[in-house]
Amino acid sequence: MKILYNLLAIFLILTGSNAQDKKAQNPVIFADVPDLSIIRVGNDYYMSSTTMHMSPGVPVMKSKDLINWRIISYASNTLGNSDELNLDNGKNNYGRGSWASNIRYHNNTFYVTTFAQTTGKTYVYTTKDIEKGPWKEMSFSPAYHDHSILFDDDGKVYMVYGNGKLFIKELKPDLSGVKENGLDQVLIENANIPAGNDIMLGAEGSQLYKIKGKYYLFNILWPKGGMRTVLIHRADKITGPWEGKIALQDLGVAQGGLIDTPEGKWFSYLFRDYGGVGRIPYFVPVKWEDGWPVLGQNNKVPQYLDLPQSKGLIPGIVNSDDFDRKKSDLDLPLVWQWNHNPDNSFWSVKERKGYLRLKTASITNTFTQAKNTLTQRTFGPESSATTLLEISKMKEGDFAGLSLLQKDFGLVGIKVENGSKRIVMIETVNGNSKEIQSIPFTGNKIYFKATCNFKDKADLGRFYYSLSGKEWIGIGDEIKLPYTLPHFMGYRFGLFNYAEKDLGGYVDFDYFRLEDKN
User: In chain numbering, where does the site feature Important for catalytic activity, responsible for pKa modulation of the active site Glu and correct orientation of both the proton donor and substrate fall (predicted)?
Assistant: First the structure.
């Protein structure tokens, strides 16, 4: 009998494990997808997010199951044409650009709104076709911080925004600006009260809903000595009175809102600061009790979710690229974003079939001021990227290669100095860059690799080169990949080429290959 019980126990463990393996796990996306806002239209889910200084901006993603997402569009091509956005005259847009977007669907139209400190404006993007566009842009001043839009049942449109002290304004029906003589008041004088008086980050990140006749407002706040916290207020009328409570304090998972499935399940989508990889999405189940959404399992963030298993981030969020284009293809798949506005006259995937040609687009001796660095997200727990460069057309003073981009960037590349080429690895610590290793090079082709380890917030990177693409040689030191607020973004793989002396040189990238090492 004892043997039978043991066999039964083993069977239950094994079948239970297999059942768990087929479920989604947190984090649902192990990559930098912060400030997420999600809606459901029929059986489809749509999500907008933040990429700040990247171009194009305000990415829009689609999913059938809340777990497996793919980028389908960008609401914004560029916020404008300024020195900061173009990396001109020593200026930049790091840590600014478009923040905390909000996605809504009303009367067969998709709305994505955001705001930008760079321009001091609030932006409204609309389209009837969220995948094919086109997107129409409207903007007005000022930039309303971390706002959320609600199309109410009475035909009115409201915007809630602010930090600690939260405000509400009524917008024009088409969202082109604030409505004259419409509702305009303080919504909640001190939204921090449920968490006490010792607050490091006041209630912000508003996401506003109307569910079964009641209004619900989600915010994040951060008590001193505590962690990022989910705060929920509710009211019977949009003008209040509002009552609030702490909804979740676990792992620092916070900032987001609510989404339901066609089957009637509810989840809260949130994100977590996770070091160098960035701010990564987590979901928690939601139950309704006494008219309140109750988040988590026993007030905790679960590892497993009652949702389908993830198939991985490749190819929906990140992807390899052989740069071989058919006529119907986009010049650049949507997984790519430029660091700031590109100068489109200095790159091509058509001048040489099967290659990305990056011409030197700016003269600088600072990598973070170099134009036309083409990027994709790094991802966890571990990932790597490899590329092959043809470098015969580089000029004196040119520098081209593969980077891990953040304020404390690292890179490996070919540098041309005094008529000779060198393989160079650079590390940046606390904003100070240093050449760690240099190796003479005489060929015209070179392979580079960058690896990332974000497991348990290790935040480590390493660079390699190869003459054959088979045997990899480490160069320089293992580097730290710290998350810094001046860039406010997870690390990015980046393909770069810039000039320190004269324009006119170029390199050809044969491919970019990602590997999920998990």
Answer: 146
